[in-house]
Design brief:
By secondary structure, the protein is of the alpha/beta class. The protein has a single domain, classed as Glycoside hydrolase/deacetylase (TIM Barrel, Alpha-Beta Barrel), CATH 3.20.20.370. It contains nine helices and seven strands. Strands 1, 2, 3, 4, 5, 6 and 7 form a seven-stranded parallel beta sheet that branches. The chain starts with 8 loop residues before the first helix and ends with a strand. The mean pLDDT is about 95. It holds the Pfam family Polysacc_deac_1. Keywords: Hydrolase, Metal-binding.
Length: about 210
Amino acid sequence: MFIHRLPSFVPSIFPSLIWDKKADAKENQVYFTFDDGPSPEITNFVLDELDKFQAKATFFCIGKNMRQYPEIAQSIHVAGHSLGNHTMNHVNAWKVSHEDYIANKMACDLVFSELNIPSIGFRPPYGRVNPALIKKSSEIGPIYMWSLLTGDYNSSLSHSSIIDHCLKNIQAGSIVVFHDSQKAFPHLKVILPQFLAYCHDKGFQLSAL
């Protein structure tokens, strides 16, 4: 069974990580986030869909993709969305040393600097962190996790199951994860318009982190 919403006790175990924005959500704000881009066709699709609803979002970008498609990274920024660090190569914190992991994260920071795009913080790939990363989180900057994981990358899920399990759990302050990647696109192109329409109908304001 795919877990779209983490048990409520998990954020309390790791309080230094940002799981939602309920404490300071204003005007029914909800936060859509997109991981693993930028990717030409897919990120452009996302930007077009967001624009239809005058929605803002946050893109946690892989450094090598930003370097390969700098014009798309710039188009995200110019459109008023925020961007964050998702490591240079989508590295797994459980499979490398802390030193190598931080070096990979810093390499992505350098790409942001080269493109003169501000980063709002960091999201660890796979949501995987290690004790050293949590201990050093205050030095790294904001580390964003999530309230709802759509699972758009999971081919074993159906469009309808993602929609049914996630929409009923969206509330003010929710941080929702999508992916602007080739793997997720079969789901994303179907579910994103429906998520946007649902939030619009419910009076949620879609904002960037």
